[in-house]
Amino acid sequence: MKNNNFYKRFLKKTESDLLNIIDNSHSYSEGAVEAAQQILKEREVNVSVSQRKTIEDFENKKEREKEIQAQIKKESKLSPFVKRLIAFFIDIVFLSLVSTIIGYLLSTTSLVNSFWEPFLSLSIVLTYFSVFNSKMFGQTIGKSVLKIQVTKYTMEPLNLQESLFRYALLVAPYFILKFISHFNINDFGLVSGMQWAYYLGIFFFIITDQKLHRCFHDLATQSFVTDYDFQEFDFNYPKKKIKTFWLVGTLAVSLTVIVHSVNSLDSRQQSNNNNYKNELHNTFEREIQIISKITPEIKKVEGVGQIEKIEVYTTTDNDKVLQVTYKPSIFGDNTNTANQIHQILLKANIGKDQFGTTIITSHTGFNLTLAFYDSYENTEF
Fold first, then answer.
1. How many Å apart are CA 1 and CA 19, to the nearest integer?
2. Overall fold of domain 276-380
3. Would you say the C-alpha torsion 14, 18, 24, 30 has a positive or negative sign?
4. What is the helix (H) or strand (E) element at residue 223, kind and residue range?
5. Which in 28, 152, 247, 345 has the greatest CB count within 10 A?
6. Helical H segments across 181-238, by residue range
7. Which pLDDT tens digit goes with each residue over 38-81?
8. How many Å apart are CA 162 and CA 333, to the nearest integer?
């Protein structure tokens, strides 16, 4: 009766007034009838058979309305798994914004290049999910919006160490395999096969665990994602399904290795002619040696954050080109950087006599797992 405005007002009414409301229930609102019958019940007033039937009909009607509302709420309610997917998407969007800011601030460092990038992105992702899903915060931004949370089987939140271990199992394999793939080593397709097995593992466990949709990192840490309307579940996961995954994963790795081996045999039959590149390098060997010596001087130019690469090549029109690509410093004055670099090259006797065109390229950008940006500005001399 807390939300019934008639209840307090009807407390002053006599029993005959309340019974009159029951007799003429069609003339009053549902709130008035509900308040009248509740007060009569509290006062233990005897009612006639017709009045009792009116009260019972009213109560049955209210009960049916509650059941209908409960069914509508149940049907319109998102499942915890769907909520988990939406929450993950929200978290990825947030992490993309964070990665963009960090990528811009570190754009002149080697941390945002392809070699070290996996470790930087791993640090960002692992820190966010581990800290926010532990009992320090309880939820990530996405989970907070969708009103779900990570909890142990004992219904207790994860501490920081448990949360760190949980998400390391999930995200570390992806970034470690990505880092290893940068090395030009003949792994016979093993790394690529392990990547496929990793992706299969995520989908396999989520799909086969039909009630809780736990992944391998959930099972390993005895945790799961739930909403606030939690009900008791059977947390056992069949060992047969785990054995099945090992079989599927092994087959994925084996198949990838076989395909890679076949492709390797085909590639060996193709000859790679590098004579032209070697000849080009020998032709400009003097200039390349001079450029390598003056590189430290170029780095000191205001506006230069990092020398990215120096290339020597010829165009289809046999025009000899020298291209110096640098990353501009974030806080330096970049307005006259290209001219200053060109002047240093001229002082070292590297210019029109050796190259038809000299291109100074300013490259602003970064390439992280969750964010990337590339912008090139060429100045020709």
1. 19
2. GMP Synthetase; Chain A, domain 3 (3.30.300)
3. positive
4. strand 223-227
5. 345
6. 190-208, 216-221
7. 888 888 888 888 888 888 888 888 888 787 776 666 554 567 78
8. 47
